[in-house]
């Protein structure tokens, strides 16, 4: 109770002093003057209430402003296209971006005490020269060797016993719009440049950002001179994590899939962890491309990450001036890839005992194939993909005013992205019927795909994959409860994948089990419904035969 009363008395006293100061001096509230004003008010309050015994000057007090919001006006939004031409004074701005690189936490000088080197000078003792770091300032403004005494012009010397250290972390970010460069298209621009910017996280904000996440923050911009280069930096005062978004990254074959370590480009000599494709696609999809184009060591690393959902970055202390470190980063990304069946089969002679429906994937390890979870066979001919486009072009050439496929053209890419984001964030639960159907299929499939030599061909992650696929179909259907129809789609996809890996089983499905024919109009949609109902009955019969202990109704 006493502590609360003291706090309230200090707050009331500070407010009273602030009102008196404003009434008498009418200060100019620019950012710098605001710091000075708050400093003077707090000094008077602390001095009057005797809260610090050795308080002698205002320089012993450090005021740090932590705004949580700024007015939603264009003048408060940081535009790197205009900086520094249109920004005369250093002040708070709002900005946002995606973290693409992150340095290790290092120390910086938060505050230092200086004394006059002339022993006869009155300022050779006491707290007359206290320098503290202020947001937006360079660290050379706090500690240098060219400070002089204002009284006798003698050099100042730092009293190292009073140096105060804090934590500092450098983070590289890019504008969210720049992700289009990593998605395989560039808005028809043959050449473009992505400019990253550096943000400083100090003290309690260190390690508050994670690689791959998108953040909205408030900070003060500044230009940092490093040799012949000038870098735009922002000192962050508050951080807010942005909501998840639909994100896809097309991995360039010439770069690394997983994070790497390099030296910090600002000349500090510390390590900086680069995001690479896997972390840039956080919460979304990373398309690797042709799996066979990757080297053996990269494939082994990919398999390890798919199995553990983490990757480890080693930072050698000898190279980066510190002790050895191992940083474990979670990988929250779905990986898509493809294998050209023709190019794969050229390396091996076709075996005569190949099972019906099984693909020849001897060029890829079985464990890596299982780590991906789902295998889909794309057997459409290239001409079949072009025909609908040709039909559309011909119709537009004959009658430019006609808009074919008007229903589908009502939806933009942005609409589909918003649908995916909304569906992804839905919380769903398994119904008892859906859960029994999953377990029944799993037990029956395990029984028919087990032999005395190799054991079961179902991986340990089969149940997890079935549940995940069922929940995904439920979310895309904008429902919150997983039904049997969702499990059916999951089973058809999963059984198709098993057929490609190990050949067909008693529960035989079509090569394109979910969409066995083109969907053109309402009649074909009704045909698909009838087909799925038949598949559902076949699934129930399969479970009743090979897992008779499971009951449904």
Give your account of this protein's structure:
A hairpin with a 2-residue loop joins strand 6 and strand 7 (229-241). Mean pLDDT is 79; it is low at 1-10, 20-29 and 381-390. The chain has a five-stranded mixed barrel. It is of the alpha+beta class and 553 residues long. It starts with a helix and ends in a 7-residue tail after the last helix. Helices cover 33% and strands 22% of the residues. It has 13 helices and 18 strands.
* β-sheet strand percentage: 15-25%
Low-confidence stretches: 1-10, 20-29, 381-390
Identify the overall geometry.
elongated
- Structural class comes to alpha+beta
Oligomer: single chain
What is the strand tally?
18
Terminal Cα separation, in Å? 64 Å
Q: Major sheet, described briefly?
A: 5 strands, mixed, barrel
Q: On the 0-100 scale, what is the average pLDDT?
A: 79
Radius of gyration: 32 Å
In spatial order, strands of the major sheet run 1-4-5-7-6
Helix content: 25-40%
Summarize the structure.
By secondary structure, the protein is of the alpha+beta class. It is built from 13 helices and 18 strands.
Strand-helix topology:
Layout: H1 2-25, H2 31-49, E1 93-103, E2 106-116, E3 129-132, E4 156-174, E5 197-202, E6 214-226, E7 229-241, E8 248-250, E9 260-263, E10 271-274, H3 276-280, E11 285-290, H4 296-308, E12 310-315, H5 317-320, E13 325-330, E14 334-338, H6 341-345, H7 366-372, H8 382-398, H9 413-424, E15 429-430, H10 432-448, E16 450-451, E17 455-456, H11 462-476, E18 481-482, H12 484-502, H13 522-546
Parallel strand pairs: 5-7, 8-11, 11-14, 15-18
Antiparallel strand pairs: 1-4, 1-6, 1-10, 2-3, 2-4, 4-5, 6-7, 9-10, 12-13, 16-17
Helix pairs in contact: 1-2, 4-7, 10-11, 10-12, 10-13, 11-12
